[in-house]
Write a structure and sequence with these properties.
The chain is α/β, with parallel strands linked by helices and 134 residues long. It is built from 2 helices and 8 strands; from the N terminus they run E-H-E-E-E-E-H-E-E-E. The chain has helices at 18-28, 89-100, and strands at residues 10-14, 33-39, 51-58, 61-67, 82-86, 104-112, 115-122, 128-133. The strands form 2 sheets. Strands 1-4-3-2 form a 4-stranded mixed beta sheet, with helices on one face. It has a 4-stranded mixed beta sheet with strand order 5-8-7-6, covered by helices on one side. It is globular. The relative contact order is 0.18.
């Protein structure tokens, strides 16, 4: 997917661990990749060496991340979540296992109406995910 095709991107702000989170997600999702990382330099308005802007791709969708100094980054809230429509049970189970490790399972996995498995998870970085396998 080209940048021109995706005009709206999810932008996640981390408290100094954007690169770790980005790499964690890329390692978890098949075919995912880091697209670009730009770091804060000396004298810039962010922690030197941390991520000013990072772009990564999961399942053809691009996301951006950045670091802020600890104490300045906003908290993530579970009122906003990333929804993943899983292709099969194996994908659902792998993503659930990875995203729930060190995080908080808020719901599931369980069947909900005609959906075979649904889960709602806040990962170890504070990002909330909804996983669905139809």
């Amino acid at each position: 997917m080209s940048d021109a095709a995706q005009r709206i991107m999810t932008f996640l702000t981390f408290s100094g661990n954007a690169e770790e989170a980005m790499q964690y997600y890329v390692d978890l999702f098949p075919g995912a990749r880091v697209v670009e990382v730009t770091r804060f330099g000396p004298g810039e308005q962010g922690p030197e060496g941390k991520v000013l802007n990072g772009t990564f791709e999961l399942l053809g969708q691009r996301y951006m991340v950045m670091d802020m100094a600890p104490g300045n980054a906003p908290d993530f809230a579970w009122s906003t979540s990333l929804l993943v429509m899983c292709e099969d049970e194996a994908e659902f189970d792998a993503l659930f296992k990875g995203l729930s490790a060190g995080g908080n399972v808020m719901m599931g996995p369980e069947q909900v109406m005609d959906l075979r498995k649904v889960a709602w998870v806040t990962d170890k970085f504070g990002v909330t995910w909804q996983l669905v396998w139809q």
